[in-house]
Amino acid sequence: MLALLLFILLSRQGEVASSLDDGREFAYHGFAGANLTLDGLATILPGGLLALTNFTYQTKAHAFHPSPMHFLTKTTSVARSFSTSFVFAIVSGYDGLSDHGLAFVVAPTTDFSTANAGQYLGLLNATNGTASHPILAVELDTILTPEFRDINSNHVGIDVNSLVSRQARPAGYYDDAAGGGAFRNLSLNSREPMQLWVDYDGVSKQLNVTLAPVHVPKPKNPLLSEAVDLSTLMAADAMYAGFSASSGVVFTHHYVLGWSFGLDGPAPPLDLSRLPALPRLGPKPRSKVLDVVLPLATASLVAAALATTFFFVWRRRRFAEVREDWEDEFGPHRYAYKDLHRATDGFRERNLLGVGGFGRVYKGVLSPSNLEIAVKRVSHDSRQGVREFVAEVVSIGRLRHRNLVQLLGYCRRKDELLLVYDCMSNGSLEKHLHDPHMPAIFWPERYSIVKGVASGLLYLHEDWEKVVVHRDIKASNVLLDEQMNGHLGDFGLARLYDHGTDAQTTHVVGTMGYLAPELVRTGKATPLTDVFAFGVFLLEVACGRRPIERGEHDNRVVLVDWVLEHHRGGSILEAVDPRLMGKFDLEEAILVLKLGLLCTHPLPNARPGMRKVMQYLEGDQPTPDLPPTYVSYAMMALMQIEGFDSYVMSTSSSTSPTVASIGAVSCGSSATVLAEGR
Ligand SMILES: Nc1ncnc2c1ncn2[C@@H]1O[C@H](COP(=O)(O)OP(=O)(O)OP(=O)(O)O)[C@@H](O)[C@H]1O
Ligand SMILES: *[C@@H]1O[C@H](CO)[C@@H](O)[C@H](O)[C@H]1NC(C)=O
Ligand SMILES: *[C@@H]1O[C@H](CO)[C@@H](O)[C@H](O)[C@H]1NC(C)=O
Ligand SMILES: *[C@@H]1O[C@H](CO)[C@@H](O)[C@H](O)[C@H]1NC(C)=O
Ligand SMILES: *[C@@H]1O[C@H](CO)[C@@H](O)[C@H](O)[C@H]1NC(C)=O
Ligand SMILES: *[C@@H]1O[C@H](CO)[C@@H](O)[C@H](O)[C@H]1NC(C)=O
Ligand SMILES: *[C@@H]1O[C@H](CO)[C@@H](O)[C@H](O)[C@H]1NC(C)=O
Ligand SMILES: [Mg+2]
Known about the structure:
Layout: H1 2-13, E1 25-29, E2 37-40, E3 43-44, E4 50-53, E5 59-64, E6 82-92, E7 101-107, E8 136-141, E9 155-160, E10 167-170, E11 172-175, E12 182-185, E13 194-201, E14 206-213, E15 224-227, E16 240-247, E17 252-263, H2 288-318, H3 337-343, E18 352-355, E19 359-365, E20 372-379, H4 386-397, E21 407-413, E22 416-422, H5 429-434, H6 443-463, E23 478-480, E24 486-488, E25 507-511, H7 517-522, H8 527-543, E26 548-550, E27 556-558, H9 559-568, H10 586-599, H11 610-618, H12 628-644, E28 658-659, E29 672-676
Parallel strand pairs: 28-29
Antiparallel strand pairs: 1-17, 2-5, 3-4, 4-17, 5-16, 6-13, 6-17, 7-8, 7-16, 8-9, 9-10, 11-12, 13-14, 14-15, 18-19, 19-20, 20-22, 21-22, 23-24, 25-29, 26-27
Magnesium ion binds next to loops.
Domain Protein kinase: 347-626
Catalytic activity: L-seryl-[protein] + ATP = O-phospho-L-seryl-[protein] + ADP + H(+); L-threonyl-[protein] + ATP = O-phospho-L-threonyl-[protein] + ADP + H(+)
Subcellular location: Cell membrane
């Protein structure tokens, strides 16, 4: 029982020969740890593979089972039956070409020092090719050597005392799987492992040699079957069994993977699953795992690449900008859309400051500087005029005044322009004046806002290198900073819609109630049309009423007319905002109201310039005196204008932008209006 266990253990290990029956039978499954007698280049590789030759020029190698065996019966001196099988592989660096060969040898010595390499297979030498001592070999020859009458360069031969084979056949086997055992060629140096069987029957004195691919069971018909009496060949002394191999000039490895031997009986069959693997030569054959993983990996890689591409295209689209050569000079004022997108949290709704006539305004914080900005998205349909506009916007960006909303820069996208301003934390004055939920602003603040706006407008009109007409002065374009200082915003923006100078197509731009009569008539904005709008703004601040208010029965009350009426009736102070509850500077209030009327004079030339207005507000000029004739003259002029404007249709409008025919000055709302002029 213990012995059996030991045997199983040993044979499982597969390395050491199982040496049973007095050394007459053994089997190597791989040669790791085996006590072989090696010479030449023969070596046992770490995996257990016996490598007889390597790529070295003209070498020979031998490997013998260490203990010699008696091939003759002791008493009768007749050759005993024996049988052996081994698995080998001839691996060369070239397809179909390898060095001389490998042989199974039985010889009385392991000393082959006088033998030659090359075609001598490490067995004999050049003196004759015949041996001085008995030698049996089965050669696996891959080179045709005419000297030894080789049949081809891929043959198996039985050699007795000579390299001239007694019998040789091209390598191959009779395939039992095919009916009738068809012969199949084999290529010895195919790099594939093959098994060779050598069987000698001492009774019939027949030597059989059988070859087959490693996975094919031993074919019934041997490749070679030679009648030979080995009794005369075998020495009386014990002889060695083993292998010999030689190399010449071709890169070749001769490997033996496993070997079994038996005297007086069959060699133990080799368990092919326990043989060592051949080393990899050339590209590694693709594994099953790779077959699955590789396409999957490739597919996911392609998918990832596609996704990335789509992402970048999407991102490009998303953050796409329009930039043209002529903009280079405005470079510093240009913002990247991506930065604005990031600053405003992707133009989130909760960052919306308001919606105006030109578009939506978002609050944002610029990344490195923490600068608070307001981004106005202005859509425009045509590229026409954009260039001039950008030029103007940028030049306007150079305007610096403490009562102007600073324009920081711009960004262009398709059909869209983004303007970046300083953010005014208290929003627009319009909200403070008219939103009942907002606390009323006290008079001193109103007066200082009015003065501030006047000074900003004066700067635009007169103090800068060229005259800038604001075109859209109104309460909603007056923005308040933290200290409630008034800043005039949106100057020049109306120009985007008012680039043409052709009177036929000129659009009137401005806001209902703030439009000077001559602006409606001619469509031409001048500093004096700004003064008119400023006058309306003065009245709006003082009275807390919109320029055009809806009264009972859809009656529209025009603020200017309404104040004029009060002035005529001598009750101008009754026009002051009731939310102030009487708490205001009397003189200042009268000044603002009268100045408002003066600035809204129907005739442009009757209006004061902004410098004059500034002088009034600063108290450098006495309050203007409005004679009663002013009233009647103004009323007359107003009527004249209404008659003149009878051609236009009136529109009522919401707070959204409208492009419409212009209504009579006295009707409409405070919405921005773009109108056809004639
Ligand atoms: N620089 C800014 N800082 C803070 N809030 C701003 C700024 N610019 C605009 N806003 C807010 O956005 C709102 C919309 O502004 P926008 O200028 O687009 O419209 P509007 O002034 O009402 O009309 P218009 O288009 O004629 O100028 C304003 O009412 C204001 O509350
Ligand atoms: C071949 O064998 C020689 C001698 O053992 C050794 O020095 C050499 O490294 C071997 N070459 C290869 C490629 O195995
Ligand atoms: C190997 O075999 C030789 C010859 O039989 C013997 O002298 C030697 O002791 C053996 N070595 C081992 C490690 O078995
Ligand atoms: C050839 O081999 C024989 C033994 O096989 C030996 O006696 C002889 O000296 C060898 N000749 C040469 C030249 O090595
Ligand atoms: C060589 O072998 C032949 C037989 O094949 C023999 O006749 C001859 O004498 C041998 N020559 C030598 C030098 O051994
Ligand atoms: C096998 O090889 C021989 C020559 O070695 C050749 O004549 C024959 O056609 C081959 N047969 C096949 C099936 O390849
Ligand atoms: C050798 O082969 C022949 C023919 O196939 C067979 O009859 C004989 O038994 C075989 N001898 C040995 C020892 O296998
Ligand atoms: Mg505005």
